[in-house]
């Protein structure tokens, strides 16, 4: 499975294209043909040979310059265009449905290392961005799950439940549009042992058969005041 599938971009950093790079071919110019050395001959033959060699060398140089300045440049430009076109087409077709990009506001940082997403079993890739306020970091977690025979129904069903924590309460949210898809979300409040955490979760399938899940987390009494930031992130998500 190709990685990374997810690219986070902060508002202060230019867009980064990871996982779908374009291969550029370096095209150098030919040095042109080189006249072979003349064989040893008599003095008279040498003069004649030298004259003929000079003439041939001049013609060769002229032809070489002509070839270099016209044919080679034309072929090089053509090859470069074809290479760029083929590389672009190849990258697009190879990465179709596999690259998820999103933007996060200023001040948000990549905190994926703190959430141990790299070692979480059962996912293809996950990233988490957040901002620390006091003892709680409001954050967004975006995870790509591998294809499943029951997808997307099994993922959508799981999105609105948490069988491991029976203290969770779920409420279905109005559908939103993510990258052209109408996606239903769920609002929940869960006690993970250190107080209540309010979350909004959305999920949708992508062309590769994988499943993308987006979860916003915040303290219950602060969530509404940060809703605008969450909505901006949600609106920036795209799949290519």
Characterise the protein shown here:
This protein has 240 residues and is α+β, with helices and mostly antiparallel strands. It has 2 domains: 21-95, no CATH class; 105-239, Mog1/PsbP, alpha/beta/alpha sandwich (Protein Transport Mog1p, Chain A, 3-Layer(aba) Sandwich), CATH 3.40.1000. 32% of the residues lie in helices and 30% in strands. The chain has 5 helices and 10 strands; from the N terminus they run βαββαββαββββααβ. It has helices at residues 43-95, 112-115, 153-159, 220-223, 227-236; strands at residues 6-10, 100-104, 109-110, 125-133, 136-145, 169-178, 181-191, 196-205, 211-218, 238-239. It has a 7-stranded antiparallel β-sheet with strand order 3-4-5-9-8-7-6, sandwiched between helices. A 3-stranded mixed β-sheet has the order 1-2-10. Strand 7 and strand 8 (196-205) form a beta hairpin. 20% of the residues are buried.
Number of domains: 2
Which segments are poorly predicted (pLDDT under 50) over 5 or more consecutive residues?
10-53, 62-66, 69-97
Overall mean pLDDT stands at: 68
Largest sheet: 7 strands, antiparallel
Percent of residues in beta strands: 25-35%
Overall structural class, as computed from helix and strand content, comes to alpha+beta
Amount of helix: 25-40%
Apparent shape: globular
**What pattern of helices and strands is seen along the backbone?**
EHEEHEEHEEEEHHE
Identify the strand order in the major beta sheet. Answer: 3-4-5-9-8-7-6
How many whole angstroms does the radius of gyration measure? 31 Å
Number of helices: 5
CATH topology of the largest domain: Protein Transport Mog1p, Chain A
Number of strands: 10
Task: Please identify which CATH superfamily of the largest domain we are dealing with.
Answer: Mog1/PsbP, alpha/beta/alpha sandwich
């Amino acid at each position: 499975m190709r990685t990374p599938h997810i690219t986070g971009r902060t508002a202060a950093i230019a867009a980064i294209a990871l996982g779908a790079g374009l291969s550029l071919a370096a095209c150098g110019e030919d040095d042109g043909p080189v006249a072979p050395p003349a064989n040893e001959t008599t003095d008279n033959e040498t003069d004649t040979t030298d004259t003929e060699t000079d003439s041939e060398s001049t013609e060769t140089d002229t032809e070489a310059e002509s070839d270099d300045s016209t044919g080679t440049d034309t072929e090089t430009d053509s090859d470069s265009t074809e290479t760029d076109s083929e590389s672009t087409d190849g990258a697009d077709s190879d990465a179709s449905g596999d690259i998820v990009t999103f933007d996060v506001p200023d001040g948000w940082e990549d905190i994926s290392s703190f959430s141990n997403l790299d070692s979480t079993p059962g996912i293809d890739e996950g990233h988490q961005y957040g901002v620390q306020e006091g003892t709680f970091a409001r954050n967004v977690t975006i995870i790509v799950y591998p294809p499943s025979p029951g997808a997307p129904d099994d993922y959508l069903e799981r999105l609105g439940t948490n069988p491991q924590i029976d203290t969770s309460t779920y409420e279905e949210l109005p559908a939103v549009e993510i990258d052209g898809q109408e996606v239903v979300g769920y609002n929940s409040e869960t006690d993970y042992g250190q107080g209540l955490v309010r979350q909004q979760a959305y999920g949708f399938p992508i062309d590769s058969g994988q499943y993308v899940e987006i979860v916003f987390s915040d303290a219950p009494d602060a969530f509404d005041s940060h809703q605008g930031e969450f909505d901006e992130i949600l609106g920036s998500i795209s799949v290519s």
